[in-house]
Amino acid sequence: MWKKSKITDQTANGQAGIKRKSKVPGVMITQYVEELPEGKSTPDFLRKPIALTIQEGKLAVFKARVSGDPKPEVTWRRAQGDMSNMEKFQNKFDEATGEYHLEMPKVTSEETDTYKCYASNEYGKAVCTVILNVIEVGFKKKKAMEEMDASSTNPTEFRKLLRKRAKGEKKEEKHDGEIDERFWEVIMSADRKDYERICAEYGVKDFRVMLKKLNEKKEEREVEQAKYVEYLSNLKHIDLKGDGSASFEFEMELKDPTSRVFLYKDGVMLPFSDEMAMKHNLKTVGKKLIFTVKDLLPEDAGLYQVDVEEVNVFSTDFKIPCVDFIVKIQEVKAKEREDALFECVLSHPIARIKWTGKNSPLEHGDKYSISASEDKLIHRLLIKDCMQLDKGIYSASAGIKSCSAWLMVEADTEPAPTGKKKARKTTQAGGAGVDLEKLAEEQQGKLQKEKEERIEAIIKAKEEQQATIAENVVEEKAADDSALVEDPPVGRDTSKDKQTEIPPKKQEPPVVKSSISDGGQLKPVKEEPKVDASPKPVKTSPVVPNKVIAPPKSDVPEPDTQASEGDNSGRKRNTGPPVSDKVIDPKEGQSGPEEPEESPESNKSSGRTRQGPLLKDTVIDPKEGQSGPEEPEESPESNKSSGRTRQGPLLKDTVIGQITDPKEGQSGPEEPEESPESNKRSGRTRQGPLLKDTVIDPGVQFVSGLSDVTALMGQPAELLCKVNSEQCEGAWFRDGKKISTEDGLTISKDGSTHKLLINSCQEEHSGKYRFEADGRKTEAMLNVKDPPRFDQNDLDAFSKPVTVKVGQNAIFKLPFVGCEPMKIQWYRDGEELLDESNVKIEKATSHSRLLLSKCQRKETGEIKIRLKNEHGILEAVSKLIVLDKPTPPQGPVEVVESSAVCIDIKWRSPKDNGGRPVKNYLLERQQVGRNTWKKIGEIPGVPTYKDTDVDHGRKYCYRIRAVTEEGISEMMETDDIQAGTLAFPGVPAPPKVVSASNTCINLTWTAPSNTGGSRIVGYTLEKRKKGSNLWSYVNPTEEPIQEKKYVVKDIAVGMEYEFRVTAINVSGPGEPSNPSEFVFARDPKKPPGKVEDLKVTDTSYTTVSLSWTKPREEKGVQDDPKGYYVEVRQAESLEWARCNVTPILLTSFTVKGLKALSMYWVRVIATNEGGDGVPQDLDNYILAMPPPVRPRFTNNKVKSFMVVRAGNTVRITINFEASPWPEVDWLKDNVPVTKRVTISNSDGSSQMLIPSSERSDSGVYTIMVKNLVGQETFSVEVRVTDDPKPPGPVELEENVPGTVTVIWESSPDEKRDDHLHYTVSKLESTKNTWSSVADRVFNNKYTVCNIMPGREYHFRVYAKNDMGMSAPSESPTWGIERRKEKFVVNMPIYKTCDLRSPPAFLVPLKQHNAPKGYECYISCAVKGDPKPRITWYRNNVSLNTNTNYYISNICGVCSLLILHVGPKDVGEYTIIAENAMGRAECSTKFSVRE
């Protein structure tokens, strides 16, 4: 039975829910029942809502897709506030996509909140959260008042404030629209791209006014700075560094070098040093000033300013996030070509932290993948394809906190295939080693709890504040009344007065009421009007104790909580009663109120409404001929409508020769048609009767002509047309040739309809078909396509999964038909398969066959075939299932119960069951301290077991294996589990054999270090014969041995024994010790002799392998050996070092840890109980090196010539193999390379690197690899060049009539580049194109022939080299003007044509479903004059400034390139085209498949 989680959720009376996580991050599932019925499931999210950041006034939409059986019910809630307003919060369900929508039209800042989506059914519920952020437009007075009210929560401080006001003191307040001076200091030193962010931080809404005032302040600042500063540039704001410091810098040149520079923080001057000796330091590098703040603390945040004398030159705002690391990054050990992962968990959410590697900042890209969880608490750095160059220290910085860890990259010992690069590994090393999601969830809960506590504190303080206000008001009024009674005014009877005029003594504070929203947030309800400070007589009423009288509603102006949509001026709406507009009721003719309509696409609304009744429109009823009401129609594509409608009856139209109604012969009413592509509709209608048109019968007319037909190969096709006469005969033509009835063609006539039927379309049937009758004709095209096609039976057979066992072959075959050429591709899990050793693809004209040999379990997945020809694309999908034995069960094992009577454990099922369900689990148990394992047997396939056969205080270890139909998995061994808690003694040391003979064996041992908290009362000794599993007691258990030695006499001569001892204390016996060494019950033996046939079997740089035969036995002289010792010593040393501590039983051994190319002496010693034998040495010393191999280069694809642009890196890598280790030398033009060239040698390769190349680096580079066996060389010619500079001035000369000699000065690069040459181009006055007249010219002049008189010529000279072509050098104009008579052209007067048009989409956007990690183009075609401005949006967020997308607009074709498709790119993409004539919009959806 499953054990319930500690975290339960009350779902009903007496019912608890089991919490578990979903596959979708951020979704929590609560299961109501312990076991789900078959076929039923709890709710889960297939797609959870995405957080939105949207501008105020727009439409906000959350979308979610859920699953579950039975179908879940979806509800929405918000954390703070209710959702009872159905017009504001609209729940919808899209049946086409299966998505649940929560729509909020015209969102305001009040909707900014955390929303939760619940999916529930009878078996459980799933919940996820999503955040909505609303960007405010305009100044919000209500919000400002709320922030002001919430700022003071201490009642004592509020009483002091009341007393100050009573004394007449005024607190200086900031008026609406006034901007903080701190804002101007920051924004005057900021970049333009940061204006929007800074304005949002300081609450500045009116950008236009702000920019105007900013320009004025900048001009004033520049005038002030001009007194001391020559120039100021390259301002870089303060930024955190990885070493726990922060710095900002700028370039400045002073007019007077002696001018003083000051540093301020929040207006306080700070001392600084120029030698990095203080907390604040200034470093000057040339004209650059770098200010640094060391040893950062939270109080170092603030506004930093730099002044020259009394003039401010730079300001920067430094903010330090309050965050710390809960889980720091850990050291990662990875192998070459493996991915490495660093993970950390933060205490507070941050969108992105700073990652550095080897003191260099890291950016997200192909090499590094930087990601964060949805709650912004878990941050990850994935280093892809680790190499030796990647190892080092990596750091994560969040605010002033940072943590670092090492990345260790282990060299891959496996040799790479010849001529190929080692394959990249699919494994991943590293990680935090803990459940980060659980930690993040706990931290998020803590943050939420802190937030709730703060809200409760604010509510409590607000209540105390209200009570204090009410108490003070009552006390002050009572004091005023009492003073009035004690000293009444002269001439007044206080007993009769109802109201008395007295001067005010105190200014009464405003009386504030408050209400608490559902989310616990405090909101003001009413605000007292401000009291004028000037002394005026006021009227007092009798005061009721403990009661606060609120002013009437009419006297309290309600602040406007929401400005009109898109209006940034902050103007408030009229608070007076609205005037209702009246519209005629179509039934009664009465007017009623009507709300002003507002365009959803308009940013501003005029607010104008109808002020009077609308007259009814009259249209003739088609049946009665009477007028009735008609609403004005509006084109769905038109932005504006004239609203004009028909004002009179429409008369019937009469046409001779064609009667619409065959019964009555009358024409019916006809409605005016409207073009769907028109942006404006005239709305004009017929105003009078239409006269009859007299039409002469033209003869045969086509009622309907031929239409283009597209047919598939082998399928029928039909062409038909209809004329107005049944007696008409006609003829059919194909490509101009008359056709008649033949095989496959059927020509028929049915009344006035003529048909041409092709029973089975073939390629030769394609062409232009024409039907002629009585001089009339109609044409159409027949296109016969032959796309790839499958037979349905073959496709059904292919779609069935193929199941094989590990090591077997899998075959997929599918016939097809279609025209050639046919492109055939096979895929496995989206990755294309190519011919390899275990993948064979057979391609034929009618079928394709895929053979996967020696299949492995990891190859299980989707198999797809893709066919493509010029007529279409077709795909078919199957599945490959490779069966194997399961992987071991997953740990760690959870101890559900551990008591004196039972041990209840629980584990996780195997990660991979091998394609078969787990039937049983096979268990074994071992009592700690014993060597035997007890087989418990097989248990059902539930990963739990309760062991009741345990002894109190004993420790047990379990082995667990999973059993399926395919076999038994490897074992998973648990840690030691103790049954109950008793303080038993520890384990003594193994007994030592002092002596042995035929009659007795003497043993000794030592006491355990852990006595269990009580004294040792004795020991029990056990013995066991070799080969037996049964231990027997040497002494009786009731008579413990008191001493730590014993003589064992109960032995058999010649038998081999081992012994163990157990300590006993007050709690009982502890665990037995490890067994002693085996000892023979016999008299001492003789040492063995020398080993025989000692020889070396293999050598390498670090190891030597030996083999030998055991020595011969001679009774009385030398006995059999029990084992062997191997000893080595270096040639220059005299001491032998033993390689093995305990004797080895085998007659072979490999000595490791040798130094390469060193000489060693080796010997072997046989040993037994009688001692060591005589050593046997090798005849000669051993050289630690493999067999000699002549150097040989292994990378045959290295190019022998390369061209590099000057300034770029030159990198040449050469792979080789040689033994012994060779010497590697690099030469340039047969001379050793200079120091600026970096040479890196590793095992089997060498690399030559020039970081920044120059032209002087050109030459032939040669690598020389040499060892004792021989040497090899390889040369690469490197040419370092750059785009050539253009030639000098060009001159023209005429030496021979009809020719021109072009002379130019040499390019400055000619002397440095021997490959540089020139190209000459010519432009004639009679032509508009340049033509090349000479190429590869190596001198500085060229003669151009065929120069025609009377024409003008222009010449250009280019310099070219291996890198490219220079800019041209222009020549003067050559030619003599020919005198011609004056030619007068009389241009006709044309009327100007207005070609302007609003934007319109010719080709709309299409839906895209792109694979993850690839590029994807989204494009459409748009027209419009003037050229429309294009803006792209994703989920209503502009993408035009997003560098992750490449946007282009070429001749009206608008494209959006997603450079690297990922889950963040999913959403709705919208393109908006705007010009002066109008606006058009088109949208599509984009999804990502794994």
Write a brief structural summary.
The chain is mostly beta strands.
Structural topology:
Blueprint lengths: L7 E5 L2 E7 L5 E5 L9 E7 L4 E4 L4 E10 L3 E6 L11 E5 L4 E6 L8 E9 L2 E12 L5 H10 L4 H12 L14 H7 L7 H8 L4 H19 L3 E12 L5 E9 L6 E5 L2 E3 L9 E6 L2 E6 L8 E7 L2 E8 L6 E3 L4 E4 L3 E8 L7 E4 L2 E2 L6 E5 L5 E6 L8 E7 L2 E10 L17 E3 L5 H51 L14 E2 L10 E4 L5 E5 L11 E2 L43 E2 L6 E2 L26 E2 L6 E2 L73 E3 L4 E4 L4 E7 L7 E4 L2 E3 L5 E6 L2 E6 L8 E7 L2 E10 L6 H8 L2 E4 L4 E6 L7 E6 L2 E2 L6 E5 L3 E6 L8 E9 L2 E12 L6 E9 L4 E6 L11 E8 L6 E7 L3 E4 L7 E10 L2 E2 L3 E2 L3 E2 L13 E5 L4 E4 L13 E8 L6 E2 L11 E4 L7 E10 L2 E2 L9 E2 L11 E8 L4 E6 ...
Parallel strand pairs: 5-11, 21-28, 22-29, 39-46, 47-54, 82-89, 98-105
Antiparallel strand pairs: 1-2, 2-3, 3-11, 4-6, 6-9, 7-10, 8-9, 10-11, 12-13, 13-17, 14-15, 14-18, 16-17, 18-19, 20-22, 22-26, 23-24, 23-27, 25-26, 27-28, 30-33, 31-32, 34-35, 36-37, 38-40, 40-44, 41-42, 41-45, 43-44, 45-46, 48-52, 49-50, 49-53, 51-52, 53-54, 55-56, 56-59, 57-58, 57-60, 60-61, ...
Helix pairs in contact: 2-6
Provide an overview of this structure.
- Mean pLDDT is 78; it is low at 1-16, 138-175, 485-688 and 690-695.
- The chain is mainly beta and 1490 residues long.
- The strands form 26 sheets. Strands 1, 2, 3, 5, 7, 10 and 11 form a seven-stranded mixed beta sheet that branches.
- The two termini are 36 Å apart.
List keywords for this structure.
6-stranded antiparallel beta sheet; 40% strand; globular; disordered N terminus
